[in-house]
Amino acid sequence: MKKIQEPIIGGFFATLALLLVSFIENISGSFNYISPIFLSSIADDSILGAFFLQLIAGWIFAFIYSLFFIKILSWAKNDWIRGLIYGIVIAILMEIGLYIAVDNIILPNLILDTIGMLIAYGIFGIVLGAFIPLSKREK
After folding, report:
1. How far is CA 137 from the centre of its chain?
2. Residue 84: how many CA atoms within 13 Å on its side-chain side?
3. How far is CA 21 from the centre of its chain?
4. 26 has pLDDT over 90
5. Are 43 and 103 in contact, with CB atoms under 8 Å apart?
6. Are 133 and 126 in contact (CB under 8 A)?
7. Is 106 left (phi over 0), alpha (psi -120 to 50) or beta?
């Protein structure tokens, strides 16, 4: 039961942290994290629809982390460092996938957008690592 419960709870809170960080980044204008913009266009400009799409994606990432990456990253001693590494890997793969999938994407400041995405998904991974610790799974 814990193998299912931890990713559901951890994915929910990690997604909330991700959305909070992306909201703060977009409001402050320091970093422009663009994923929620694309999700809202997929959800027909519905904020609630975009939230549920992001939540489902967060749960999928949480289950992938709890089933596969937690064992691959077992060399990292702290749970939050393991989650941070996973979050950065997700951000890099999503950034690559975004530029492969969208033909004419032109961002005003590519470096700041990439840094914003790395920060947001790094915090996502830290929260996920806190909710899905490897130390409890080994016992």
Report:
1. 22
2. 7
3. 11
4. no
5. no
6. no
7. beta
Q: 86-89 contacts: CB < 8 A, separation 24 or more?
A: 86/125, 86/128, 86/129, 87/121, 87/122, 87/123, 87/124, 87/125, 87/126, 87/128, 88/118, 88/121, 88/122, 88/125
Alpha-helical segments (H) within the chain: 2-28, 35-42, 47-64, 70-72, 79-101, 110-131, 134-138
Measured distance CA(79)–CA(100) in Å, rounded: 32
**What is the per-residue pLDDT across 34-62, written as a single tens digit (0 to 9) for each?**
655 555 556 566 667 777 888 888 888 88
Average pLDDT, the chain: 79
Mean pLDDT confidence for 58-83: 87
pLDDT of residue 72: 87
Q: What is the 3-state secondary structure (H, E, C) of 21-41?
A: HHHHHHHHCCCCCCHHHHHHH
139 has pLDDT over 50? no
- How many beta carbons lie within 10 A of that of residue 9, not counting itself? 13
Least confident of 46-50, 91-95, 103-107: 103-107
Q: Which residue has the tokens 């941070």?
A: 84
